[in-house]
Amino acid sequence: MFKQTPAPVPADGLAAALAPFGQSRMLPREAYVDPKVFDWEKQNIFGGWHCVGHAGDLDGVGAQKAVGSGSDGILLVRGEDGRVRAFANVCRHRGHELLACGASAKRRGIICPYHSWSYKLNGELRNAPAFDGISGPDPVEFGLTELALVDWHGYLFVDPSGSDGDFALHIAGLEEVVGPYRTEDLRVVARHSYELDTNWKVIVENYQECYHCSTIHPELSKISPPTSGENIDLPGDWMGGWMGMIDEAETMSLSGRSGGVAIKGLSEHELRTVMYLVGFPNLLVSLHPDYVMTHLMTPLAVDRTHVECAWAFPREALDKPGFDPSYAVDFWDLTNRQDWAACESVQRGLSSPHAQPGPLAPDEDGVYQFVTRVARAYMGSR
Ligand code: FES
Ligand SMILES: [Fe+2]
Q1: Tens of pLDDT, residues 45-59
Q2: Which ranges carry the Rieske domain (predicted)?
Q3: Best label site of 49, 125, 138, 224, fewest CB within 10 Å?
């Protein structure tokens, strides 16, 4: 693992978080409010495998998209060979960003907007204007810096450190969980972008439990009983669990009805449940019988997180005359906003110097999975 120094978090607090379930405490308050801990996480947790987007966002040869910014700036490019590559979003001349943060482009080369150096889609330098042939920079030596990238079931993961280990270990045990939904074949047809005044971990912790559902999600609780389901044990870095739906419901929507079609080939169990996964650290994947919702989190500051929520459907649903994804989008937008209000309130609460790490309820074993994973990372292990 690429850890250098342990996180600047009190050791007794970490020991309390790592105590056996039932006796443990939440992470020390510093984990949510101290900018030094945030900087450590950016370098050490987000410096390893994390999700940077959907492969479907890079449609066709030459498609380019800039994600992250500053030290995390990454340029995603689909090459002549159809493969998506990730490069550090920095020109080899004098360091201009190749594409502005969040921008997309589609062309047969990568062109720096400053002095027009151009690169091939594989990152090799193609042309540096006005250098003569003899003193011109070497195309390979001055090629873009490529980062490790894996396209797994249509989700793109990057390891900027290059030393976070084998990706297969990171997603160990998930092939049989995610594979049946064939997420690589689904189409994202709706997206919502939210900017929350909360730490990224508060969002994951909230996602990992339904202890709060009966209080803040009356609509959800009608369709999916809050105490249904169970968490699964995964050997890699991901975690999560499933929940059931009432017999009358086909999916998660206000009425319980689906406006789409079930994803082909799912098992009886998969058709009656929703699987909620945390792709550690920043991707939440909610596998429904007829659609897949993802939340992609980009931490902006210790108390600010950008969340992009995307809804993907099978092609057969899109072919249905008058198909309208709002049955899924509206349901989850309402639920998201209920969650975001709670998460922002937790952040404000934790900013109090009187905040202290509390104990976890029996229904919060999913939170325990996440908290202990983070606590271990703070100590420099997995
Ligand atoms: S900085 Fe990119 S061409 Fe000069
Ligand atoms: Fe919730």
Answers
A1: 999 999 999 999 999
A2: 49-158
A3: 138
